[in-house]
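User: Okay, second chain of the day. Same drill as before: sequence in, structure tokens out.
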Amino acid sequence: MSTLVPPTNRIPDRIARLAAVGVLPSDGDDTRLLKGTLTVAAAMFVLVGFIWAGMYALLGLYTAAAVPFTYSVISLAVVIQFVFTKRYAIFRFSQLFLLLLLPFILQWSLGGLVNSGAVMLWSFMAPVGALLFVGTRNAVAWLVGFLALSALSGLLDGRIAREAGTITAGIRTLFFVLNITGVCTIVYLLTRYFTRERELAQERSERLLLNVLPPPIAQRLKHNPSSIADAFADVTVLFADVVDFTKFSAGIAPQQLVALLNDIFTEFDALAERYGLEKIKTVGDAYMVVGGLPTPRADHVEAVAEMALQMAPAMERCSSRAGAPLQLRIGIHTGPVVAGVIGRKKFIYDLWGDTVNTASRMESHGLPGRIQVTEDVYIRLKDRYAFEARGSIEVKSKGRMPVYLLLGRAAPAADSGRRAAVVAQPVDPEPA
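Assistant: Same drill. Structure tokens below.
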């Protein structure tokens, strides 16, 4: 049994489909919006033209009826041509030209300004539309054209009124009301459509920006587009890397490789969001996340530890879906960093400092499937989490360092003696 869709839901969908008929895949958001708005406007004017032609025909004004009818037929043909050729410049010029000229011709056929109910008001939408669709500089010519036709109508108005047939006062009043309300309604609807679509485009851009930068940093850049550099005295940095991924990736298709990485990093992104952490970047198959910035928090070490403990199960799920036995190496360190935005094109929010380098070394010198942390992390978490002491290992550019493997949350207090033994038990270090 089919579900009835309310008409109020169908109308916006149909307008959206109409707006997209002349859009190219390569068009940017601004071009899409302009093309869509002009297409919707053309459809509205075609409909209004047929309505006005029918009204004049019912009143016996057949010559006048032929003008909006001809406009609608030509405009509809231009829209169809645009749908098939996607030649936007021709479509834009023809719509503005028809809208500028034909209301004046209609006014003259009806006997001038008063008899027509100031139908020339519709022509003013040509320079207004030109402001939107061709820019402020080129719109001046359309305004000059409107003023010239208005001046010509003023010069000819007396002669045209004498030669025209008689239109009753009631019909003239009806024409004034219909033309004024019609122009105002169309202007309102088109402005509302354009404003709504622009707001939606801004929301999409905002979401995209927030996918690149933390919200506080994005707000600062919007108000002051200068470089940003902040010092943070205490944050926790995590690096994760897929073990032997380069070797594994040589044996699968590029599409499968990208799909697998997307699956893995999507899982990690969800974990970062759950624990309130800031993803910094991915480089190849490496993933970097930080806790404690740009908004400082007291529990950043615990939050990063919780995410690290959940990354292995997430990796297992991804490996199962891909049918590939993949493992992670994870490294964590805590300390001061400098964070900021670099570049003007394809900019990123990045971190610098010894804390970042040390966290990276914890990952690269770690063990497959394990979470390796520095002594600083161990000291901060040893009362609430269980560890294995790996002993001192040689770390590139750092010398020998005592490191620990994070196992999970600490067991209940009754098992504290056993946990102490686990912490004290060294793991045979692998060569650096």
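The first helix runs from residue 7 to 19.

User: Thanks, on to the next one.
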